[in-house]
Structures are given as C-alpha cells and as structure tokens.
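Researcher: We are triaging several targets before committing to wet-lab work. For this one, the compound of interest is zinc ion. I'm pasting the protein sequence and the ligand SMILES. What I need is the predicted three-dimensional arrangement of the protein with the ligand bound, expressed as structure tokens, so it can go straight into our comparison scripts without reformatting.
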Amino acid sequence: MKRKIALTLALMLIVTASSGQSPSRQMSKDVAIRAPSRINAAQLLEDVKVLADDSMEGRKAGTPGGARARAYVVRRFREAGIKSFGSSYEQPVKLSPERGDGAQQGANVVGYVGGKEKSNLYLVITAHYDHLGVKGGKIYNGADDNASGVAALLAMATYFNRNRPAHSIIFAALDAEEGSGAGGRAFVSSPPVDVRHIVMDVNLDMVSHSDRNELYASGTYHYPFLKPYLDAVAAHAPVKLLLGHDDPAGSKRDDWTTQSDHQAFHREKIPFVYFGVEDHKDYHQPTDDFQTITPDFFTRAVETILDAVKLLDEDLQAVESKRTR
Ligand SMILES: [Zn+2]
C-alpha cells in the first residue's frame, strides 16, 4: 500500500515535472525500498539457457526446433500464471512462402495477467522467441537475440501475477520475427482484444548483452509523451538507460523504428517503447550463446524495464489520452 501511494506520488510528480519538480527524489526513495530483487535472476538465466541450447536448433520459425522452443514457452507461460484468452495460448502465424523451405506455419504464444482496475485498456509486452536456426552447419542459438527478451517477458509476467498491475497486461512471445516480422503483424492484425483498447506496446529484443552497461529505449521520437516516464526511470536505473535510435534523420541502420516487432504496432499508430542493446560482436553470429551474454547487466536491465512498465501501467489512462489516432 505505502509503495502504491509512493508510486502514484511519483507519477503526479512526472505529470507536473514541467513545473520544475524533479521526480527523481521520489524515485530514489523507491529504489532504496526496492531490494530484495523483484526478479528471480536464477530463473531468468535458466530460461535463456534452455531456449539457447543446441537442442532448440536455433528456434527457426516453422521448424522442429522452433516448435520445441514454443512448447517450452507455453509451459513457462502457465507456470508464470499467465492466462490464455481461449483454450490455447497459440495464435497461428502464416509464414511467407519466400522462405523457400516449405515451412508454412508458426505460432505466437499469447496470454494476459488481469489488472486490478475495471478498465478496457491494455498494455502489451512483446518479445520474439524465434531465431535464425542452423546455417552452414552451425547452430545460431540466439541467446541475446532473443532468448533474453522472452526470459525478461516471463520474469515480468511472474512479477505481475504476484503484484497485480492496475491495467491488464497482454504478454505475447512472437514467432517469425527474423526475416519477416510475420508474428508481430499476425498479432496486430487479429489481436485477442479490440485493437482500439491496446494503448501501447513494450517490445523487448536483445536485453542481455552489454559491456558498457547501456540499455536503449527507442520510440520517444515518435511518441514524445512517453519521454517523462523513461526519464524518471533513467534517473535511478541500475543501468545507463539511453533514449534514441528512432530519429529518421539518422542512418537507416541507426534508426530502429522498423527493426523488430514494434514496427507492426507503429504502423497502426499504436505507441511503442522498444528496449534493446546496440549490436555487439555476437549479433547474428553462432557465438550469440548463453556463455557470451552479460548476466549482471541482464538482471539490472530487466529491473529497469519492469520499473518503466510499472510507471506506464499506473498512468495508462493518461498515456491513452495523449495518443493521436
Ligand atoms: Zn531479435
């Protein structure tokens, strides 16, 4: 209860931040109160270890390895207390024929954690679970890309299942991001709830590998009203939370606006925040293994993302009111 009041106070400070009040004083109290960690670090790493194991054969969409990864994600959804919208968590995803390997179908894994408030507003958290598969006889395990994002999604679902959010949160582990983004498009084109009630997407893609302790939040160039929330989190984050990689004036490579599943939401004018690290030496290499991620940074990055999601959830009505449709 004391925390709820503290958080709401922090929010009011954010809304009135323009009046020169800094939210950081309130956040510093929260940070001090936060320990012990809200994230089970051992489980977080275990999820990456399992998904990035050779037995998953690089989790390519439409392959047996992809299906094995999905079965694991479905099991973990259940364990985390995520509810399914219907009898199954799986949402079929049609794969593009251009792939040339004859695989036709993949599937997203989708569910939700109910909110405390009687509201039809939803926040969506996405992370793709597929990766590149086997190429040239080498398995691309994709520990950072993106077993880490899926593990972070599961950790936050576990947290919110125990600490009810204000609004319902939809969790979507997406398929077929690599090479096509088909999973993200399938979700946005037929979401489990009325698309008008989806206020925003928080997308996680590569959140476990940084030697510089730097995590990026991308999207505020397009949705500047989200900036005060991220600034408040950045002020006390246990990692360097940097905003950027969304300015179209920059190089194509530098602009991440269309480089992961948040693009499908952005195309429908649904605001997004994309959390990710800058490309590293193991990006899209067979060396992107469990052994090359940076575990301490990873746990701190997930704590930081959880802070951002909590703040946005608490003020989702205001976020909704600032959206332009
Ligand atoms: Zn990725």
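Researcher: Any quick observations?
Model: Residues 21-27, 29-34 have pLDDT under 50 and may be disordered.
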